[in-house]
Amino acid sequence: MSVIDIKNLTKDYGDQKGIFDISFFANAGETVGFLGANGAGKTTTIRHLMGFIKPDRGCSEIFGMDCFRRAADIQKRIGYLPGEIAFMDHMSGMDFIRFMAEMKQMKDLGYAGELIDYLELDPKVKLKKMSKGMKQKIALVVAFMQDAPVLILDEPTSGLDPLMQNKFVEMIKEEQRKGKTILMSSHIFEEIENTCDRIVMIKNGKIVADENMEKIRTERSKHYEITFSDERSAKMFQGKYPGSKRSCNTVCFLMKGNTMELLRELNRYEVEDINARHQTLEEVFLQYYGGERV
Ligand SMILES: Nc1ncnc2c1ncn2[C@@H]1O[C@H](COP(=O)(O)OP(=O)(O)OP(=O)(O)O)[C@@H](O)[C@H]1O
Question: Where is the ABC transporter domain (predicted)?
Answer without folding.
Answer: 4-229
